[in-house]
Amino acid sequence: MRARDGTPVSSMKSRVTAQQVADMAGVSRSAVSRCFGDGLVSEETRKRIMAASEALGYRPNVIARSLTGQNTGLVALLLAELENPHTDLVLKKLLVAIAEADRRALVIPETRQHDLTSSTMHALDYQVDAIVVMGGTVSDHVVDRLRALDTPVFQFGRQIEGLGGVACDNRLGGLMGGRFLVQSGRRRIAYVTKTAQTDANRRRRAGLAAALEDAGLPFMEEESEDNSFEGGYNAATRLFARSDRPDALFCFNDIIALGALQAAATFRLRVPEDVAVLGFDDIPMASWPAFGLSSLRPNLDSQVGRLMAMIEGIGKGSPPNREVDLVLPELVVRRTAV
After folding, report:
1. Where in this chain does the record put each HTH lacI-type domain (predicted)?
2. Domain contains 111
3. Which of 208, 180, 172, 181 is nearest to 192 (CA)?
């Protein structure tokens, strides 16, 4: 097959341009752009363009499309925590949902912990259709710039004022977990938290504190220096070494709770007879028979579905939502807290 100028297809450069497609199809360059963009072309023209594209192996350049103000189909995912099973699960579900919506994800991890300002600005370089902040903090001046540029930005799993998005109701989750432990007869309940005072951490802590206050019980707390199995182990070890050792641990997340279970085994404490352990996130490992970890499930499928509906709504011209859509958590009772 040859282009209109007689050049054999096989001798053309590997990076095929829209102009080459136009030449082969016998149409204008703008017709090719409209065919692969949001514009209108006749059915006959579309068939010719697609046939030429197939023959040449042409794929539209989404970055070049961004320079013309067209939708790129790109959704930027900004990550603050990279070594967390819950983050891995959220990312997997978002990647699948974005692909099923015929979009593509641009994953931008942040290496300076809990500061996503530079990552957000980097996402703007690609003229993405939407930005999803999955953790950390975006500065106020960046939020203001995003609004000025009319770039939709959503938060996932957070409830920061001024940005729309979706999140588990973390305060309610803390309240539910606290009431469950109180109702099961626990009287010395400690919160094992992470050092970083993220939005989710503050809200879960507040919910637990409210439940303990309602029950007239003291609030105990121990920080995990690292949001990890090792951090949970070390924090629980310090708690179990106290003279007023707690009889229940409510952990910020499941990975910290798994470390706490290991600490209980080190102290030869029976779970749940001597100490109950409750996590948050309900990661797949929580249900493994070796752990049987009771946990609060954030209903990720519902969160992802609602977020994608917001992104698709923006693409259809809906005004951006400045409110966070809260999803109710679910208490999953297993062996470690009953």
Report:
1. 16-69
2. yes
3. 208
